[in-house]
Design brief:
Helix content is 59%, strand content 0%. It has helices at residues 31-50, 53-68, 77-100, 127-137, 140-151, 156-163, 167-187. The protein is elongated. The model is unreliable at 1-12 (pLDDT under 50).
Length: 190
């Protein structure tokens, strides 16, 4: 149509094009805008730390839920981003504490890419290399229980049966293996 502007709309020919949004007076007009403007970089930051899409999606949602109540909508864009970054650090620390029994999250002070493009499934992640390095250093029984539980997704009961040990022994073995893996992770500088 002649004379009609298509600014801000996506055409089917440009699926990767990102809409630009005006944020008046360096403040967000609504919670929706806070989410839309920040979800991409928060997800990218978390995905870079956890290395898998499901956990990154869950933790990103947790960051926004945790930030919703204490965050003021009247805060500046810079204040909102700083608060979300701090909340992401806290959420990641809780995630690793629950998974490994120890906080191991470090978020650099680098400003994240604000292009809003989230990593895809094919994004480069060093997590598989880290897992292989740590597992290769563990004793056979520790390595095996962790592979069964976390790489193959078996329950404690199924893992115990595969190893021909009791469920209680499998729980203890898993706990010790996670502690050893955590210590190795730090020792190897991963």
């Amino acid at each position: 149509m002649a004379g009609r502007s298509t600014a801000g709309s996506r055409s089917p020919e440009e699926p990767g094009r990102r809409d630009l949004r005006l944020v008046p007076q360096d403040r967000y007009p609504s919670w929706d805008e806070v989410y839309r403007d920040n979800v991409g970089w928060v997800y990218a930051l978390i995905f870079g730390k956890v290395g898998n899409k499901p956990d990154a999606e869950d933790l990103t949602a947790e960051v926004f839920v945790a930030a919703l109540k204490p965050l003021r909508i009247t805060a500046s864009v810079a204040e909102v981003r700083a608060y979300l970054r701090t909340t992401a650090r806290t959420v990641l620390a809780g995630h690793w504490r629950a998974r490994m029994g120890r906080e191991i999250t470090v978020i650099d002070d680098d400003i994240p890419d604000e292009s809003g493009s989230a990593p895809t499934d094919s994004a480069e992640s060093r997590a598989p290399e880290h897992v292989r390095a740590v597992l290769s250093e563990l004793p056979e029984r520790y390595r095996r229980i962790l592979e069964l539980r976390f790489l193959q997704g078996l329950s404690v009961r199924e893992s115990a049966a595969a190893l021909a040990i009791s469920v209680a022994n499998a729980k203890v073995l898993q706990h010790r293996a996670l502690r050893a893996a955590s210590a190795l992770n730090i020792d190897l500088g991963l």
